[in-house]
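Notes on consecutive records. When two proteins share a document, each keeps its own sequence and its own token line. Never mix them. Below: protein one.
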Amino acid sequence: MVALRFTSLFLLCTSFTALATNLPYKVTAPKGTSTLPSLTEWTKNFLTAVVAAPSEDAANAGFDAYLADNVTISYNDMVVARADYVAMRVAHGFPPTTVTVNQTIEVPTVANSSQAGIVSVFFTAAIGSQVAIASMDLVIKQDTSLRTGPGCDHRRIYGLTQVQA
């Protein structure tokens, strides 16, 4: 796990593009904007990386790339440890999954900035033959413990509240 975490952080800090090629999504910045995707796009990438992950390794890499080590998680009004939240995802297996984001609300901490903020997202996930409906509120901040460098995305989820039927 330590090696996987180190590898994830290394990939993230050497090049955001390099990380994107190892996860099941592609990140491209719109022309004329910063190199970081918006908080909403970043959240969609998080959902794809962990909910639609094709394997345990991919899901773990997604969690390591997006969740802060000291994240506070509430799942259906129960406080859940980070490791338990990750284990819940792994326990469901990895059937083919499609995530559809139905609605989002983005509130940046600083106006017109993608550096930090709160994103609320309502989504459905077609997991094999089942459909899960969920909402998630994410508190996204800069993780100052990460190494700096060109192309590094230091955003991490510090608060996650999920309600799922």
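Protein two starts on the next line and is unrelated to protein one.
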Amino acid sequence: MGTVMLVPMARRPDDAYPWERLPADDAADDGVTHAHRASWVLPAVPSSTSLARRLVRAALRDWAGSAAGEVPEVAELLVSELVANVLRHGRGEPVLTLLLRDGVLRCEVEDEARVPLRARDRSPDDDEGGRGLLIVESLSRSWGVHPTSRGKAVWFELAVPEECPA
């Protein structure tokens, strides 16, 4: 699980609505061919977890169609875990970014909190809460946290089948 550099993300204009797709919706400007990128600012309300799942599903349907296999369902689950963590423990409006290139889907959720995160230890005595990052760790090919100018971003990556046109 190595660290992966992010492609810079354009910020939303001040007059953009929350959950609106940001202007940098394709990654062609960074010199990478056959890449797709989309970002949304989500409202800091509980319903943003389901909104994030719908946005992931729609983007992957547009980009990869049925060739993505089970990736959309796994991505939806993991994104909803990250958004839920921001809503419970973070600050500000979550920013969801998806980047699909070279057979890899990278999903990132950024917030304004600077507190580092870690997966909880597995213990049968623990309650049901707090296991979202364990799920992310178990189902993704890699994941991590990095500081941003706003706070921090938690990301994960999933392999997308080769026949998927990126």
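For the record: The chain has three helices and five strands.
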